[in-house]
Amino acid sequence: MRALSLLMALCLPAAAMAQEVPCGGSFSGFVADLREEAISQGHDPAQVERFFAPVRQDPKVLERDRGQGIFQTPFVEFSRKLISQYRLDKGRELAERWDEVFDRIEHDYGIARGVLLAFWAFETDYGAFQGDFNTLNALVTLAHDCRRPEIFRPQIFAALKLYGHGDFDPAGTTGAWAGEIGQVQMLPRDILENGMDGDGDGHVLLKSSAPDALLSGAKMLAALGWRPGEPWLQEVVLPEGMDWSLTGLETELSVAEWERLGVQAREGRLDDARLPASILLPQGRGGPAFIAYPNFRVYFEWNQSFVYVMTAAYFATRLEGAPVYDAGNPDPGLSGAQMKALQQALAAKGYDVGGIDGILGAGTRAAVRDMQAKLGLPADGWPTVGLLERL
């Protein structure tokens, strides 16, 4: 999700616009510039001084920013690591404990409880581990770093506004290393825009209040385009002779069209025949297969990691009663070094793979699928050692 500890922007290469945002130089001078900008926005100078007084650069934040190897893990392995019996049982227990809150979310936003429970589980183990990085230090450190200052600089001024509301402590508010706060890990700007006082105490406190956190997360999903009452992901069985080039997020057909091609739900029936949908093979034609409905794409507005999005969306279906997926027998994937070599080879042929990072993201999958088709291989988007050798 966009505002979670697996922040979507952290998977993106540095944007050209980053060069237009002030960054770098001495850290103290950078903070002085932030103070001046805050005052120019109309904030009280004394309040600005109190807000920035405790800020310090945090080198551990930069270490974490540059070490995101978890995204290189294949879907089956990744999902098995994240989805435990404890998280399933705890999720169902919390669904009952906060039944009225989830009923309100389902009524007001049309979002199934499993969706928010999955994020709650993955981000903080249902609030148990919310991160111990000082949030202001993290935001200012990442804004000073010149990789993505356009992402983090606005978050600093949003945190200042929350401070003015009494909902942020510059010295004491802690969270994830990338500046997200609370039980579902939202960035200050998202809290400012979508924060909900779910327990009626007059404050939006995502660290201590489950109703605040859940309702705020629901409002944010709605703002990102969640379509009320519609599904997001469903496991399917594919026909013999499937045209693998039709798989992937780049291709959308109606559910009725997929049915005519022989796609069937593994359990129950596919949803509304009129809905557009894509067929996803997270580990190629030998692994599990899913149909992704329009709401699935909203997940990418919150987080850009394909493997994370697939796992969060799938876990949400499990919490709603879906069975364990059929893992199949996928071809072995590539190591991180092999994936980088593949990306370099694809980039040399003119493909936009989104950076040589060893992560099988959407750009790399699309390039792999196209190259497989050109080489006469099954175009399922799953890179293998055989493909790498051919390149």
Main attributes of the structure:
PGBD-like_sf; Lysozyme; globular; signal; disordered N terminus; five-stranded antiparallel beta sheet; Lytic murein transglycosylase; 391 residues; Lysozyme-like_dom_sf
Give structural notes.
The chain is mostly helical and 391 residues long. Among the domains are: 87 residues, Orthogonal Bundle (Lysozyme), CATH 1.10.530.10; 55 residues, no CATH class. Helix content is 45%, strand content 5%. It has 17 helices and 7 strands. The strands form 2 sheets. It has a 5-stranded antiparallel β-sheet with strand order 4-6-7-3-5. The chain has a two-stranded antiparallel ribbon with strand order 1-2. Helix 6 packs parallel to helix 11, helix 7 packs across helix 14 and helix 10 packs across helix 11. The two termini are 34 Å apart. The N terminus is likely disordered. Keywords: Signal. This is Lytic murein transglycosylase. InterPro entries: Lysozyme-like_dom_sf, MltB-like, MltB_2, Peptidoglycan-bd-like, PGBD-like_sf, PGBDSf, SLT_2. One of its GO terms (molecular function) is peptidoglycan lytic transglycosylase activity.
Short description:
By secondary structure, this protein is mainly alpha-helical. It is built from 17 helices and seven strands.
What name is given to the CATH topology of the domain at 233-319? Lysozyme
Order of helices and strands: HHHHHHHEHHEHHEEHEEEHHHHH
Low-confidence spans: 1-18
Strand order of the largest sheet: 4-6-7-3-5
Overall radius of gyration: 22 Å
What share of the residues lie within helices? Answer: 40-55%
